[in-house]
# Entry
Amino acid sequence: MKIDGGLGAANPTSLSGGLASIGASAKRLEDEGYAGAWTAETSHDPFLPHVIAAEHTERLELGTAIAVAFARNPMILAQIGHDLQRYSGGRFIMGLGTQIRPHITKRFSMEWSQPAARMREFVSAMQAIWDCWNNGTKLAFRGDFYTHTLMTPFFNPGPNECGPPKVFISAVGPLMSEVAGEVCDGLICHAFSTETYLREVTLPRIEAGLAKSGRTMDDFEIIGPGFVVTGPDEETMAKAATGIRQQIAFYASTPAYLGVLEIHGWEGLHGDLNAMSKRGEWQAMGDLIDDEMLDAFAVVAEPDKVAAEIRARYGDCVDRMMFYALGGDHGADFWMPIVADLAA
# Structure
C-alpha cells in the first residue's frame, strides 16, 4: 500500500502549511518513504506548492486532494496540469472535487448543476485538450456544460514528453463514484466513508464505470478514507478521538453525505446535527458520535497496531492511504514506523 502525506506541514497528517515550508516538507516526506504528497484547496492555492515540491524531490508523486473543479474551467486546469506534469517529470496527479452548491455559487460565484454529469464532462474536456496538445488532434469538444473548439498555435504548448497527468476525483455518492471509474485514473475516498459503504456502494459503482470504459481495477487507484485515532497514551488518544468525533459530526450534518449514514441506519442523527450546526454548536455536535460510529469511520488503535488495523480493513481494496488524524500533536517521527510497516 502506498502511504501519502500532507505537503507543507510539520505533521504529515495535515494538509495545511505555507509556501515557505514546502521545500523542506517535500524533501522530508520523500526521505521518510512516503509515496506521495498532497495539498488541499482550503485557505491557500493548491497548485503553487507543487512547483516548489518538484524542485526538491525526485520520485515523490505530487497531487491535489482536492482542487475545486467547478471554481475553474477545463482549459485553465488543463494548462496547469500540463505545466506541473512537465515540470515534475511526470509525477503530478490532478485531484479534483466538486465542493457543495453553497460554496460554488456563493463563495466562487460559479454555476452549479448536475454535479456528476458536469464532472464527467469536465474531465473529458480536459482530456480532449491534452489530446490536442500531445497528439495534434483537432480540438472539437462540445458538451452540455463546456465547449472547447478553438486552439491556435500561439496558445498551444505542444506535446508533453511526460504525457498528460493522471486525474483523480473525490467521490461520496454513487453517481460520482461511477464517473470516476468511467473517465478517471483514480478515486479519492472522502474521509466520511466507512468500510461498509466503500465495499457495498463505492466499489461496485467504480467497477460499473470502469466497465463502460473497457477497463478494470488494474487500471485504477483508490485512496482510502484515512481517519485514524491513535496516540502514545490514553490522554492523547482521548484528545484525538474528540477531534475526529467533531469532524465526523460536521460531515454527518451535511445533506450531501446522508447516504453514508443511511447504509448504517444512522440517518436519524442527521437532522439533529444539521440543526445544531445552524446554531453554531460545533463542539457539542461531537458528543452525539458514539463509539460505534467512531469505530466505523476511523481506525482506532494504539500506534503499534494501526498498520495491522488499516491492512485488515482496507488491504484488499485500497491502493494508497493518507492518515487523517486530529486532536493529537503527533509529529513526523511518530508516523514513520506506521508508514514503513504499511509500505513494506
Summary: The domain at 2-234+297-343 is CATH 3.20.20.30 (TIM Barrel). The CA atoms of residues 30 and 59 lie 7 Å apart. The longest strand covers residues 92-97. The first helix runs from residue 22 to 31.
